[in-house]
Amino acid sequence: MRGIGALGLHVGYARVDRGVDAAEASATLDLGHFSSSRVRLSAEAAFLRAFPHREFVVAEDTTYRDVFYDLSGHIDLQLLMRDPAKTAVPYLSFGVGVHALTSSFGAPPIDLRYNTNVFGLKAATGLRIRLRGGRTALVVEGAALLSKAVSRSRVRIGTEWLFGDLRRR
To answer: Residue 148: which domain range?
Structure first.
């Protein structure tokens, strides 16, 4: 492992299980590379907020409306498809993480689902486009996250500040 490569901030849209739409904000930290500069380790912290949605509880014959939240952290292995010194670098990413969920619907069957901590898997593909000057990049990414109750597809866009071997000299 060699020094920190990038710090990124992102915003995005997610479609969660049961057709729930959500907004997400996240930060990533590239922790460096292994023997090849194309194989990197990164950490991600994300906060998801579902848009208000309705759920019907059959046992109570009642519809509840509220939001839920997901604070998650992932460790990812990132595989760069081109030399990181290039202007446009596509990548694949695979990771594991933990999700801390919370809600306040007021219905035990729903709150049981959204008030828990669960593990998750992540697969993503994206593109990092280095901007003029070589110290910043635009990132566009699509990902699938598998986790009990909050599996989702997401699209996000963000900026990264590049350091070390990722920064153009």
So the answer is: 6-166
The sign one gets for the Cα dihedral 86, 91, 95, 101 is positive
pTM: 0.88
- Tell me the two tokens of residue 81: 């498809």
- pLDDT tens, position by position, 87-143: 999 999 999 999 999 988 777 777 777 888 899 999 999 999 999 888 999 999 999
Please tell me the total count of domains within the chain.
Answer: 1
Residue 143 lies in a domain: yes
Residue 1, in any domain of the structure: no
